[in-house]
Amino acid sequence: MATSPAAAPPRRVVICGGGVVGACTAYFLSTHAASPTVPTLVEKSSPACAASGKAGGFLALDWCDKTPALSALARASFALHRRLAATLDGGSAYGFRPVHTLSICLPTDPDPAAAAASPLLPAWVDPAASAAPPRELGTTDTTAQVHPGFFTKAVLAASGAEVVIGEAERVVVRDGRVAGVVVRGRGEVDADAVVLALGPWSGRFEMVREVFDVSGLKAHSIVLRPREPENITPHALFLSYQPEPGAKMLDPEVYPRPTGEVYICGMTKDEEVPDDPETITGEPDSIAMLHKIAGRVSGQLKREEGAEVVAEQACYLPCTDDGLPVIGEMPGVKGCYVATGHSCWGILNAPATGAALAELILDGDAKIVDLAPFSPARFLKKKSKRGV
């Protein structure tokens, strides 16, 4: 009995969203070993204009190990980050480097007279910044960093994708299969496969909204250039800080970058995502708290002692109801794929997400990581149990 030939892989792929997930998907589509496919990428504003340009860029091998599905995704991605850095000259192009990672408890009322330096504490961190001996959370074998905006743009450029600046309004579906994307001001762009990778904006598409919810968590950050940037060593700091007795504990993070700049983040709030990413600004009180924390960590990071303010900003992290990203083909729409909901691990997990999607689209199955736990179809089961 003769077997029918396998269906040809899609050749016209349109990716909606110019963030890190869309960029990585474009890269792995275009570098696919058997069926390299250069996609079209549609972005409303500019590549890496939202969280992909304003995140910390921290990478960890094993910090997701408590969740088996996420562990596989993170470990595969961590390995791909190293491979990409070797291929794309990541050290020069986007600040890829291994880092030491420490946990530090900031005192509510620092006492410089009682401070004792710890051998683990970097020289640029004030001894009074540590209320207890710091703990090692990661080594240069298990933690690393990239500049997220530079990484996104480098990967996208290496993909060769055609970038169309315009708003994707809707996915065109005919007979249950994707036929294209309607782009405002450009009309319909034909497609055999469409990837929706718009972070928290993915929920603006009705076909996504009907299946699952993706919300935005507003995250604030500042970027400082210290007085003596050459003295800032590659130590990522995860802090615990109670601003005053009885106040809520905060968990700020500090990431020095090879450029000499230092990125500080950690103030978040649930808030409706605005239509235009270019209109996002930080809350003054959150920005002020980050400056206060920066000054507590190091005199090098105090504005009043000469630290330059490079950026004060905010972005929205895409979050799902069950805390797992959504990666896979949309139920009932052949050829429409979604990748969103990575929360704070978007920069880390984008490479394996993009590689898996490229395999799914071009080969019909993802081999680099099992996508079953991330399938959007999982929400259909939950909705049916609730009687929705």
Automatic annotation (TrEMBL):
Gene Ontology cellular component terms for the protein in this record: cytoplasm
- Keywords for the protein's UniProt record, in alphabetical order: Oxidoreductase
Give a Pfam family name.
DAO
Q: SUPFAM superfamilies from the xrefs?
A: FAD/NAD(P)-binding domain
What positions does the domain FAD dependent oxidoreductase occupy?
A: 12-360
Please indicate if the UniProt record lists Iron as a keyword.
no
Query: What InterPro entries does the entry give?
Result: FAD-dep_OxRdtase (IPR006076), FAD/NAD-bd_sf (IPR036188)
Any single GO molecular-function term of the entry would be: oxidoreductase activity
Q: Does the keyword Oxidoreductase apply?
A: yes
Give the domain of life: Eukaryota
Do you know which PANTHER family this protein is assigned to?
OXIDOREDUCTASE TDA3-RELATED, SARCOSINE DEHYDROGENASE-RELATED
Q: What is this protein called?
A: FAD dependent oxidoreductase domain-containing protein
Q: Report the source organism.
A: Oryza barthii
